[in-house]
Structures are given as structure tokens and as C-alpha cells.
Amino acid sequence: MTLSDSYARCEAYEVFNGTGRGGALILCEHASHRIPHRYGDLGLAEADRQSHAAWDPGALALAKALSDALESPLIASRISRLVYDCNRPPEAASAMPAKSELIEVPGNVDLTDEQRAERTHTVYQPFITAVGRMIEARRAEGLPTALITIHSFTPVYYGTPRAVEIGILHDSDSRLADAMLAQAPALSQRRVERNEPYGPADGVTHSLRIHGLENGLANVMIEVRNDLLRTAQEEAQMADELLTLLRPALAALQTEGGPSA
């Protein structure tokens, strides 16, 4: 991959603003609820195929807004996380879950090694290869890069309401998360929390590890409660709020020597 293509698309992923030279690379691993025809409907009802179990509602629109504002590339998955969750390694049961919260996924029960390998090869591998190539291309051009992954989460989980509105998640490298949380008082109207509603122990930092930590890039995973992303207006408002945290955080990292090692 080079920085010559502003937009690229294949079955597994799409790249927006690929020529962006801003200081970030944005990922959206759960951008789509699309299930390729070869997998049928996974035995799911239509409502379940459209639900938060299948994707992160509002996350792609939010990621696109941040990509435009930060003039930075975005790589988004084009396949439902119920086929393969690109934020999970192939060996994880949750990469191809037989159950997601309260939703059973019949098409993922008792998958053979060959079936798992096919999904890994056609969904996961193209996505992570595209990310790796983008990181290499930006490094070759001397562009500083912080990794930002964008997600949304359901306001009620296993029947329990969640109070957190914006989660700032990190693994062992907390540089970008710390810098964002330092700006959180500017969003006094929002409940912003560290490593909520998930954290590293929940297995949600795979992308941060393989693309951020292994490449020495400052990194953060942003989770937004999806009832705050129901309309285009709400998505735009949330993008502005996140930029209130991100812009000074990225600037602080640059001042300290850059977001990449």
C-alpha cells in the first residue's frame, strides 16, 4: 500500500482518506453488519443481523468524521464481526462467536478448522495486512502516526444499564489515553472513563497490541455509547467532542517527541 490512493475498497475492508498526512491512523473494525452470501445468514433473524451484536452502530460515521477532521487515513472492515471480529486473534473463541451477549449464532457453532481458516484468510488477514502496509507506508514517508480505533457499545448489557458514555481504553501503552483523559474536564457534560466498559482483561485490545504496541505507536481505543450516535447530528456532535480530547492529546505527544517510536 502507498499513500497515492485516497480511497480503496475490497470485500474485506475499505480505506478512506488514504492520502491523509495527519498524525493518526484510524481503524474501525466493527464498521459493517454485512454478511457475505457464502455464509448465508448465519442462522440469524433479521433483527439480530442488524443489532449491535453484528456491528458497532454509528462507529463508521464517527470514524469518518474524525478522519476528515484530522486529515488522517481510516481503514474500516466491511464484514460483520459475527463472521470474523477483526479485533480478535484467530485463536480466540470470540473471533467467530457462537453467542454474542444474548444472541445465539447458529452458523458459528462447531466450525471446522477449515471453516475457521477460510474466514481468517478472507476476512481477518486482508484487514490486518492493509493496516500493516499503511503503517509501513507512513513510516517510509516520515509521517508521525498514532493509532486510534473507534467503537460503539450498547447502553444495556445483559440487562444492566451502563452509565459510562465515552470509554478511553488502552493496553500497556497509556500515553495517548492519558493525554486524552487529561482533557476530559473540558467535556464536563459527559461521563468519560478509563478502560470502561471494557479493558485489556476482556480481550478487546488486540488491534492496539498488534498494530500499536508492536510498531511502537501511541495508541488508544475509543468506545462511545451507541444511544449517543442515533442521528447524523449526534454523530457530528460526538466527533466534535472527541476532537476536544484528541487534538490537544496528539499535539502533546508531538511536543514530547512524537506518537511513534
CATH architecture type: 3-Layer(aba) Sandwich
Strand content: 15-25%
Structural class: alpha/beta
State the domain count: 1
Along the chain, the helix and strand elements come as EEEHHEEEHEEEEHEHEH
> Which word captures the global form?
globular
Measured distance between first and last alpha carbons: 21 Å
Structure summary, number of beta strands: 12
Strand order, sheet with most strands: 1-2-4-3-7-12-10-11
Q: Would you tell me which CATH topology applies?
A: Aminopeptidase
Q: In which range does the helix fraction lie?
A: 25-40%
Fourth CATH level, the homologous superfamily: Zn-dependent exopeptidases
Largest sheet: 8 strands, mixed
Q: Specify the CATH class.
A: Alpha Beta
Low confidence ranges: none
What does this structure look like?
With 261 residues, this protein is of the alpha/beta class. It has a single domain, classed as Zn-dependent exopeptidases (Aminopeptidase, 3-Layer(aba) Sandwich). It has 6 helices and 12 strands. It has helices spanning 46-50, 59-70, 113-140, 175-181, 206-212, 232-255; strands at 8-9, 13-16, 24-28, 74-77, 99-100, 103-104, 146-153, 156-157, 160-161, 166-169, 192-194, 219-225. It has an 8-stranded mixed β-sheet with strand order 1-2-4-3-7-12-10-11, with helices on both faces. Strand 8 (156-157) and strand 9 (160-161) form a beta hairpin. The longest helix is centred in the middle third of the chain and has 28 residues, at 113-140. The two termini are 21 Å apart. The mean pLDDT is 95.
